[in-house]
Amino acid sequence: MVRLITHNLLACHAKGCTTNNFPLAFRDVQLENREAEYNPEFLKGFMPKIEWNALVSTARELGDVSLPAECPEPGTETDEFLHALHHVLMEIHVEEGSMVCPNCQHVYRISNGIPNMLLAEHEIK
Length: 125
What we know:
Layout: E1 2-3, H1 4-7, E2 25-33, H2 40-46, H3 52-61, H4 79-91, E3 92-100, E4 107-111, E5 114-115
Antiparallel strand pairs: 1-3, 2-3, 3-4, 4-5
Protein name: Trm112p-domain-containing protein
GO biological process, one term: rRNA (guanine-N7)-methylation
InterPro entries: Trm112, Trm112-like
């Protein structure tokens, strides 16, 4: 399923697309919010892996403005912040639509919550 925790790790890998290929832009998406188990320790451990600016801009494009522009320093996260981060990373699901590379405009379709990240043979590096 496409959640923002997954999306924040994806970049375009089409042949010749090596710069400005992250983050993939969502287009014509259908979203679904699904409750997920809250685990603040997991979130704190995962935070160093997040590309923060990409996460915040993507969340805002999808209509969620709960995250601050700057990521809190480790150890200073409030419970309110961790709940907002949990919601954005774990509970927003992209069910339908596409992700588009900002560089080469390659389109990765999303159907039934599953992104098709496969490339045709001529698109592979």
